[in-house]
DNA sequence: CTCCAGGTAG
DNA sequence: CTACCCGGAG
């Protein structure tokens, strides 16, 4: 499925416009956020609502402000701390592994994307986030949220799993290919959470509806 | 009840 | 490729 360039530009413009007015604010989006904080936020955000993480994040950073401090925690201690966020056993075990790996690496996180993806807890999504936020390179935060927005507007994927769908992979990359890649990414996630909701999207107040496939189907 | 800024074992 | 993790918010 070939998507027209003009449609992508329309989408980018509208999302950026919407984001300026309605974008959400989170601790890990602050300019002052350290690389450690950025990486930890992505770990906590896995399969967990951003608002939930926003409540929890400051407490976690206060308790474990650095890789060094995190490396001193036991696996059980991390699991206990992570309980309010859900997925705490898995996440605790994996975060422990990541912290220990960082200890061995003397606190140095890998630089190249491929190496990042080899780290514990760092999958495709997190490697993209790393590229976007730390290497400052356009890269899509393609989660269920972004996938839903893109599919409704541009057309549905073929494969069940986002992570193996070449159509969504390529489309998302094109969409965030822009000098303001970070803002477009955040814009899409916020837009997906606040307007293009999973259950009942607010199509009446959506500034994308004139070119949206999902909306077009609705009005038939 | 469903859904959530995914990773990974099998 | 799927199935599973999990508490919490809506």
UniProtKB/TrEMBL annotation:
Claim: Ribosomal protein is one of the keywords in the record: no
GO biological process: base-excision repair; mismatch repair
SUPFAM superfamilies per the UniProt record, alphabetical: DNA-glycosylase (SSF48150)
SMART domains: ENDO3c, FES
PROSITE patterns: ENDONUCLEASE_III_1
Keywords: DNA damage, DNA repair, Glycosidase, Hydrolase, Iron, Iron-sulfur, Metal-binding
GO terms, molecular function: 4 iron, 4 sulfur cluster binding; 8-oxo-7,8-dihydroguanine DNA N-glycosylase activity; adenine/guanine mispair binding; metal ion binding; oxidized purine DNA binding; purine-specific mismatch base pair DNA N-glycosylase activity
Cofactor: [4Fe-4S] cluster
Listed InterPro entries: DNA_glycosylase, Endonuclease3_FeS-loop_motif, Endouclease-III_FeS-bd_BS, HhH-GPD_domain, HhH_base_excis_C, MIG/MutY
Name of one Pfam family that matches: HhH-GPD
Domain HhH-GPD: 44-194
Keyword field contains Endoplasmic reticulum: no
Similarity remark: Belongs to the Nth/MutY family.
Function: Adenine glycosylase active on G-A mispairs. MutY also corrects error-prone DNA synthesis past GO lesions which are due to the oxidatively damaged form of guanine: 7,8-dihydro-8-oxoguanine (8-oxo-dGTP).
PANTHER family: ADENINE DNA GLYCOSYLASE (PTHR42944:SF1)
Protein name: HhH-GPD domain-containing protein
